[in-house]
């Protein structure tokens, strides 16, 4: 798939105010600083469609972008940033939970994790919560340019070993690098296939 048009639609913190359309949508979520904005900019071929985070944890909103006039890319807030207050953490949890529980247009979520790190409890807990709630998701490993291929394989195996304790199969996953333009075609092809079904 080629992304021909990518337009910002709306930002809000209330699932009820998300676009009232039947277009399929795909949500991107991960820890602050994981490289989510860079990935969205790589996918859409725009330099600054999603704001790369000068101040992690500040963009606590659900951002909808209309892609090729036929699907929505949803940029969700980064989680796990230590400096946000307890009350804003609670608000965050509430609207994210509501987004995933009530947004019928959601086809799949993409959970981003930094390929350099060992599996982190916060990411594993989030994946487990998605699984328990029947929300389909794939993993996107980011910043693959930072590791040698052998280390990439090893780190993916670490995830596989942990996740197979909970599930029968490893979720679908993608290896990406926004700096080196890796994984773009595969990811867009995956979305294209889902849109066609
Ligand atoms: P966000 O907070 O998840 O939206 O993360 P950003 O996209 O703002 O990226 C956080 C930091 O990681 C920035 O300094 C980026 O330049 C860097 N970064 C993002 N993607 C990559 C990547 O693929 N490779 C490398 N080496 N750095 C990246």
Explain the layout of strands and helices.
Layout: E1 6-12, E2 25-30, H1 36-44, E3 62-67, E4 71-75, H2 86-102, E5 106-114, H3 121-132, E6 137-142, H4 149-163, E7 173-175, H5 184-196
Parallel strand pairs: 2-4, 2-5, 5-6, 6-7
Antiparallel strand pairs: 1-3, 3-4
Bound molecules: guanosine-5'-diphosphate.
Strand content: 15-25%
Order of helices and strands: EEHEEHEHEHEH
- Quickly give the structural class: alpha/beta
- Characterize the main sheet: 7 strands, mixed
* Helix count from the secondary structure assignment: 5
Count the beta strands: 7
> How many structural domains can be distinguished in the coordinates?
1
Fourth-tier CATH superfamily name: P-loop containing nucleotide triphosphate hydrolases
Distance between the termini: 15 Å
Average residue-wise pLDDT: 90
Helix content: 25-40%
Cross-sheet strand order for the largest sheet? 1-3-4-2-5-6-7
> Which molecules are bound besides the chains?
guanosine-5'-diphosphate
CATH architecture: 3-Layer(aba) Sandwich
Keywords: Cell cycle, Cell division, GTP-binding, Magnesium, Metal-binding, Nucleotide-binding, Septation
InterPro entries: G_ENGB_dom, GTP-bd, GTP-bd_ribosome_bio_YsxC, P-loop_NTPase
Cofactor: Mg(2+)
Protein name: Probable GTP-binding protein EngB
């Amino acid at each position: 798939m080629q992304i021909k048009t990518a337009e910002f639609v709306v930002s809000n913190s209330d699932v009820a105010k998300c676009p009232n359309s039947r277009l399929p949508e795909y949500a991107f979520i991960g820890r602050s600083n994981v490289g989510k904005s860079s990935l969205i900019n790589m996918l859409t071929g725009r330099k600054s469609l999603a704001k790369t985070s000068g101040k992690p944890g500040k963009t606590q909103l659900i951002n909808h972008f209309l892609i090729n006039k036929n699907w929505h890319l949803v940029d969700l807030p980064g989680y796990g940033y230590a400096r946000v207050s307890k009350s804003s953490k609670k608000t965050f949890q509430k609207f994210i939970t509501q987004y995933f529980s009530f947004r019928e247009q959601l086809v799949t979520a993409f959970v981003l994790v930094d390929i350099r790190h060992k599996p982190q409890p916060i990411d594993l807990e989030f994946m487990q919560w998605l699984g328990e709630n029947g929300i389909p998701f794939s993993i996107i490993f980011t910043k693959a340019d930072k590791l040698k291929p052998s280390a990439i394989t090893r780190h993916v195996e670490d995830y596989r070993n942990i996740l197979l304790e909970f599930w029968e199969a490893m979720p679908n996953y993608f290896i990406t690098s926004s700096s080196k333009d890796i994984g773009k075609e595969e990811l867009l092809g995956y979305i294209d296939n889902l849109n066609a079904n």
